[in-house]
Amino acid sequence: MSEINQHYIEKLFIDYAKVNTRSDAGSQTVPTTPGQVVLAKQVETDLKKLGVSEVKFDETNGYVTATLPGNASKGISALGFIAHLDTADFPADNIQPQVHPNYDGQDVVLNEAQNIVLKVSEFPNLKKVKGQRLITTDGTTLLGADDKAGVAALFGALEFLLKNPSVKHGPIRIAFGPDEEIGRGAKRFDAAHFGTDFAYTLDNGQPGQFEYETFNASEAKIEIAGTAVHPGDAYGLMVNAVTLGNEIISALPKDEVPEKSKDHDGFILVNHFDGTVAHASI
């Protein structure tokens, strides 16, 4: 029996990581950014090269789907696996993946010219991957392991099963979708057409980690209208929207924040605050 082809997975991951698939909550297109279409079509091509069946890119919802037919003699229910193509709202132009073979567990200089260093003191999980191949960016962009690592891993699993027919399985359905980071992709997923009772998402986490719950959140946007008056004439008249915004944020529970929460603790995350005297948004 052949082993998982790590070189194949790494090459795909690096190729996919270089494509800017940053999603855009302000866009109304499907998907919300053209880079996601570029990657979807590349994934479609790579699935056909791999030799799986029923490969399709649905332009109406942005999903690429495919099937690995079952090879077991008795009927086994179809099982699904899903990963998303978009990345979070961080710089994603000109991504430069860097491979660090046999990582030594120390700080990593990502960009000497800009003095960008990946520090173990700030990211202690780095200690867990000492001795392994570590892939980073040059520090000026995100890498996109969420979720292109999941995309590449699914390809690796499919390739392994195709090369090892002695591993019996039922039909396996695969889906690669858009706009997960902004909460739209799942709404467009055609579950009925996918045709499985159960499916698992490969998305982040540690090796061996299995989550059987889902994250749930709501978003609130606050617009504050102030009154702009020349500072020399402001007494009793100016209403500073920035000051009001600071008061709102200061009134939030100070311990209900991500950096002080774990497990099932809830939290409130202020991820944007911008303003002038006349107007502020949170």
From TrEMBL:
EC class: hydrolase
The organism's place on the tree of life at top rank: Bacteria
Pfam families listed in its UniProt record: Peptidase_M20
GO terms for biological process, alphabetical: peptide metabolic process; proteolysis
Cofactor: Zn(2+)
InterPro entries on file: ArgE/DapE_CS (IPR001261), Bact_exopeptidase_dim_dom (IPR036264), Peptidase_M20 (IPR002933), Peptidase_M20B (IPR010161)
Coiled coil: none
Keywords (A to Z) from UniProt: Aminopeptidase, Hydrolase, Metal-binding, Metalloprotease, Protease, Zinc
GO molecular function, one term: zinc ion binding
EC number in record: 3.4.11.4
Catalysed reactions, semicolon-separated: Release of the N-terminal residue from a tripeptide
NCBIfam families assigned to the protein according to its UniProt record, in alphabetical order: peptidase-T (TIGR01882), PRK05469.1 (NF003976), PRK13381.1 (NF009920)
Family to which this protein belongs: Belongs to the peptidase M20B family.
Designated name of the protein: Peptidase T
Species of origin: Secundilactobacillus malefermentans
